[in-house]
């Protein structure tokens, strides 16, 4: 079935000038960009976005990191795109993310409190619907 997923290029990706490279990989795979916006996320949006991580030790450092600069938010569409984008992105930990993936090719561990792994992708249909509603309420 055709799905939509929320993709974020996190502040590390924007700072490093990797927005074009990351969108290129999504488009080259054959997925469709439905909406794209560069914006600064506020605390309230990020608290909702990361609600499932409430209470985890990395939540505050994660929110601070996500507020350290602009984020590129995108809605991406295609058959099985939720799973497909997660496969393009690679494992959360960039040290072990497979070469060929966005994280495996372009990210590394900087020894910080938060894993800086360039991108976020929704992890299921329910979270995709929730996250798209948060970031793109008009869609
Ligand atoms: P993301 O898929 O956006 O979801 C939560 C984010 O928190 C994750 O990517 C990483 O950036 C970060 N993260 C997840 N687990 C850890 C961890 N154990 N330590 C630090 N940061 C983490």
From TrEMBL:
Cofactor(s) the record lists: Mg(2+)
EC number: 2.7.4.6
Residues at the catalytic site: 120 (pros-phosphohistidine intermediate)
Subcellular location: Cytoplasm
Reactions listed under catalytic activity: a ribonucleoside 5'-diphosphate + ATP = a ribonucleoside 5'-triphosphate + ADP; a 2'-deoxyribonucleoside 5'-diphosphate + ATP = a 2'-deoxyribonucleoside 5'-triphosphate + ADP
Protein name, entry field: Nucleoside diphosphate kinase
Gene Ontology biological process terms from the UniProt entry: CTP biosynthetic process; GTP biosynthetic process; UTP biosynthetic process
Function: Major role in the synthesis of nucleoside triphosphates other than ATP. The ATP gamma phosphate is transferred to the NDP beta phosphate via a ping-pong mechanism, using a phosphorylated active-site intermediate.
Domain Nucleoside diphosphate kinase-like: 2-139
PANTHER family linked to this entry: NUCLEOSIDE DIPHOSPHATE KINASE
CDD domains linked to this entry: NDPk_I
Gene Ontology MF annotations: ATP binding; metal ion binding; nucleoside diphosphate kinase activity
Keyword annotations from UniProtKB, A to Z: ATP-binding, Cytoplasm, Kinase, Magnesium, Metal-binding, Nucleotide metabolism, Nucleotide-binding, Phosphoprotein, Transferase
Family the UniProt entry places it in: Belongs to the NDK family.
Naturally occurring in which organism (per UniProt): Cellulomonas fimi (strain ATCC 484 / DSM 20113 / JCM 1341 / CCUG 24087 / LMG 16345 / NBRC 15513 / NCIMB 8980 / NCTC 7547 / NRS-133)
GO CC term (a single one): cytoplasm
Enzyme class: transferase
């Amino acid at each position: 079935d055709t799905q939509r997923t929320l993709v974020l290029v996190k502040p590390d990706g924007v700072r490093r000038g990797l927005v074009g490279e990351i969108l290129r990989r999504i488009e080259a795979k054959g997925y469709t960009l439905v909406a794209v916006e560069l914006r600064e996320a506020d605390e309230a949006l990020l608290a909702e976005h990361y609600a499932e991580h409430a209470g985890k030790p990395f939540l505050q450092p994660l929110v601070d990191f996500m507020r350290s600069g602009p984020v590129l938010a995108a809605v991406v569409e295609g058959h099985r795109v939720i799973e497909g984008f997660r496969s393009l992105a690679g494992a959360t930990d960039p040290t072990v993310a497979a070469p060929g993936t966005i994280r495996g090719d372009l990210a590394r561990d900087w020894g910080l409190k938060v894993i800086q792994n360039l991108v976020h992708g929704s992890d299921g249909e329910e979270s995709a619907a929730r996250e798209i509603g948060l970031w793109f309420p008009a869609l």
